[in-house]
Amino acid sequence: MQLDDYQQLYKNNLLDDVIPFWLKHSGDNEFGGFFTCLDREGSVYDTDKFVWLQGRQVWCFSMLYNRVEKKQEWLDFAIQGAEFLKKYGRDAEGNWYFSLTREGLPLTQPFNIFSDCFAAMAFGQLYKATGNSEYGDIAVSTFHAILRRQENPKGPYNKAYPGTRPLKSFALPMILCNLVLEMESLLPPELVEQTIASGIHAVMDEFYRPDLGLILENIAPDGSFSDSFEGRLINPGHGLEAMWFIMDLAERSNDQQLIQKAVDRTLTILEYGWDNQYGGIFYFLDVKGTPPQQLEWDQKLWWVHIETIISLLKGYLHTGDERCWTWFEKVHAYTWAHFVDTEYGEWFGYLDRRGDVLLPLKGGKWKGCFHIPRGLYQCWKTLDAIAQKKANPLLQD
Questions:
Q1: pLDDT tens-digit profile of 100-136?
Q2: Which of 137, 36, 14 is closest to 81 using CA atoms?
Q3: Does residue 200 contact residue 255 with C-beta atoms inside 8 Å?
Q4: What 3-state DSSP class applies to 34?
Q5: Residue 105 near residue 164 (C-beta atoms within 8 A)
Q6: How far is Cα 95 from Cα 91, in angstroms, rounded to an integer?
Q7: What predicted TM-score, i.e. pTM, was given to this entire model?
């Protein structure tokens, strides 16, 4: 395939396939919000609503309205989801629940800080689209609540016994690297810079093992290695996704050295996580090669592959490293051969190790309208930038 073929493929899959799928099937016209439990054809098989996925979908349609086209249909879809969240999504202290009934009654306590992260993203992006100050206030207050909770994200809902094996998780500092850019215009500049510096340090130094070239999912509070199931855990997809967050932060500050580090680590993590027997990227691995705790360790997941493609394309855009393009073509070929549903639209989420569809669902408790549309948008725009750079020698680094 030629560069322009890739450009059209990612753009068309986003605008002509994935977004229409969610517009057609996921809106709850009776109670508001979105259905995310959709089978292969888009029929609703469960009506529970998961707050982090509601937030992600509000963000997605707000982002498309802001960055692609001022389609009223997209904005209306985002607003009705946000109004459902505003009415039902939080407890009295402003913490965001994990799950709700279809009508909006809380099902699960606010133990999961990622509900808060994606609520902040959602209302921040929707504020940009509407100028509604209430949306902006919700985004900012939620962001500050996340920062207050970051040392103990689960709060009273943490089931670990205190003090025996305290661990820090990679997921939150990684998300903050992206969230802070999403909300930059709403936050004081000094808080933005502080959050960025802290996030880069965590992702590139604290959780990174230079001897392995890999990122650990969990470390001891002092940064040391924990020889336990959690401490040995490698999630290649998280590391690969985090690297394009870091590239975006490095581009913002014109830090070419940091970009190169992120590119090198992308390639190292990918080489480690790639399944040389069947293709695709493993979901979980144990850094010592012992059996992982997760029984789903060898599954191939949608989000891991699309996030990897973003990092490879951004790496190629910023450095021209041909290894990025070679790996892009390899991961792209696997991804489009196995995940894209050409018959009913959208993407499958879960494959077994051999690449066969494990669950034909298009959405559920963990998969919603987020990674695929965000990834397709990022790839489309990055491919456009690559094409412009190739066409205009003055844009070359």
A1: 999 999 999 999 999 999 999 999 999 999 999 999 9
A2: 36
A3: no
A4: strand
A5: no
A6: 5
A7: 0.97
